[in-house]
Amino acid sequence: MLGPDGDFITMPEISQIFGELLGIWCLSEWMGAGKPSHFQLVEFGPGRGSLANDILSIHLHGALGGAAVSVHLVEVSSKLSQALTRDQSQVWARKDEPVYRQGTTTTGLPISWYRNLDDVPRGTIYLAHEFFDALPIHKFQRTKGWREVMVDIDLDEPGKLRFVIVPARTLASPQLIQAGEVRRLVEVCPEGGVIVQQLANRIAEDGGAALIADYGHGGTKTDTFRGFKDHKLHDVLASPGSADLTADVDFSCLIKMAGATVVCMGPVCQRDFLKNMGIDTSGKKPCVLLRKCADPSIKAELIQGYDMLTNPQKMGERFQFFTMLNHSRLTSPEQSKGAPTPLPVTSFSELGLS
């Protein structure tokens, strides 16, 4: 389902620049945390592992100054976890155990697969790229109070499905609607809120940082639930199980669920985030990769990928980045208010990267 021949394509498949710049963010956060002796990279829903591979391709472990580096992947699909095993050694599967697969990356780093965040070691860098938009949602519509939208069999066309408004309150209705909600139609992702709370508690207690990158909004959108098949919009009720389903992430809800235990920054658009991480050298050109590349065809691919990632009419403003940090990461609590401040990264050499 992933990639050009599937139903949708993700940012790492567009260009390896994306993953390399997220690697810069990871390294910057490790430096900002005082360069701890352990660096544990955790990714939610890694799919085929493109993002993790690109992050590690910048020789991240070499720039970490001797810190013990390990990779931890939260992936409920054992089928998808096998996609990574082609580039791993010493990999085996375990049944009914917290770590159901372990191995070593091609660069010699230990790598583990988990089904739940609770089983992942604490004190890490957490990445969730196009993960929250795939979690299940509840839909509510304001009529005579809030009523939940559900799926039913279409009585007029047997064999087809339809959306219906439940005439009475469901158990979820009074629990999931925020006080003061003014929208007529609301989508709520309870599982996303629980995961954010778990991450916030971990970061508050043990340090580390989390970066969530996804399609989303700040509590303004209403009906974003949609399907994709063969890279085209698809009726979410047609042929269930044959298409990718997604809903935009409500970052305002995630901020509320995180609470005051951590510093929340963003969301900011992808274009601003990548430029802050150094995607430009001068003018509108990709950074390190383009300077090193001598192959004209690869250069053309890099420039095309850069345009797709940063162009406001393409992915530059559709994708949002949101981060949670430990309060010690800032010089003063007041810095957590308002717009996120740029990370203090001025050059790749400053991070120990060529």
Automatic annotation (TrEMBL):
It comes from the Eukaryota. SUPFAM superfamilies: S-adenosyl-L-methionine-dependent methyltransferases. Keywords: Methyltransferase, Mitochondrion, Transferase. Belongs to the NDUFAF7 family. GO terms for molecular function: protein-arginine omega-N symmetric methyltransferase activity. It is an enzyme of class 2 (transferase). It comes from Oncorhynchus mykiss. Gene3D superfamilies: 3.40.50.12710. This is Protein arginine methyltransferase NDUFAF7. The keyword Protease does not apply. GO terms for biological process: methylation; mitochondrial respiratory chain complex I assembly. Residues 331-354 are annotated as: Disordered. One of its GO terms (cellular component) is mitochondrion. Residues 344-354 have a biased composition (Polar residues). Arginine methyltransferase involved in the assembly or stability of mitochondrial NADH:ubiquinone oxidoreductase complex (complex I). It catalyses: L-arginyl-[protein] + 2 S-adenosyl-L-methionine = N(omega),N(omega)'-dimethyl-L-arginyl-[protein] + 2 S-adenosyl-L-homocysteine + 2 H(+).
